[in-house]
Design goal:
- The complex is a heterodimer of chains A (113) and B (112).
- Chain A contains no helices and eleven strands.
- Chain A is globular and about 45 Å long.
- Chain A has 113 residues and is mainly β.
- In chain A, the strands form two sheets. In chain A, strands 2, 4, 5, 9, 10 and 11 form a six-stranded mixed β-sheet that branches. In chain A, strands 1-3-8-7-6 form a five-stranded antiparallel β-sheet, with no helix packed on it.
- Helix content of chain B is 0%, strand content 52%.
- Chain B contains no helices and eleven strands.
- In chain B, strands 2, 4, 5, 6, 9, 10 and 11 form a seven-stranded mixed β-sheet that branches. In chain B, strands 1-3-8-7 form a four-stranded antiparallel β-sheet, with no helix packed on it.
- Classes of the chains: A mainly beta (113), B mainly beta (112).
- The A-B interface holds A 9, 32, 34, 36, 41-46, 49, 89, 93, 95, 98-101, 103-106 and B 4, 6, 33, 35, 40-45, 48, 50, 58, 88, 90, 92, 97-98, 100-106, 108.
Amino acid sequence: DQQVKQNSPSLSVQEGRISILNCDYTNSMFDYFLWYKKYPAEGPTFLISISSIKDKNEDGRFTVFLNKSAKHLSLHIVPSQPGDSAVYFCAASARRGNTPLVFGKGTRLSVIA
Amino acid sequence: DGGITQSPKYLFRKEGQNVTLSCEQNLNHDAMYWYRQDPGQGLRLIYYSQIVNDFQKGDIAEGYSVSREKKESFPLTVTSAQKNPTAFYLCATAIDSTATQYFGPGTRLLVL
């Protein structure tokens, strides 16, 4: 049973517009959430994280929003750039339970110039 | 120059052969992880180690083995029992088991 779900396998956005990537989770014990970006044939790169005590975290063009009641988080990229084209993975962990990260299956973002 | 190195970048395995993938880090991280990526499957955890001389099975450990004799090294052996080994293998490290993981560049394993 998937504990972290990224229901959109792919997303296309025009350059300069906002990209919104979504992630849902089922385990209420998760208290730490991360987003990774991955180019083909490379390892994922850590992008941004959020603790369950917050509902928003911002880093430059990237903002992550957490809605605990809905068990939903989203990554906003504004403005989107062609270099943002990659696969984005959502991940979650239950730090109090000392468990490893659980990853979603990823969403492929294509930013069109 | 700090980081995580994985070698080789490409590895070919013959039928019935065991192969070992290397993962080395000089970040002084306690926790190390091995993942497998298949198309459309995301990242699946094979094994992880929270400290030297200790490791736990992940979700897909069958057909794989690991050792953690040194803090810096966490090699993964793909045994002949793994019937579908073709995949992209990723090693990751973290300061501790609850922290952000950082990934190496990956090794692609192909079966001849």
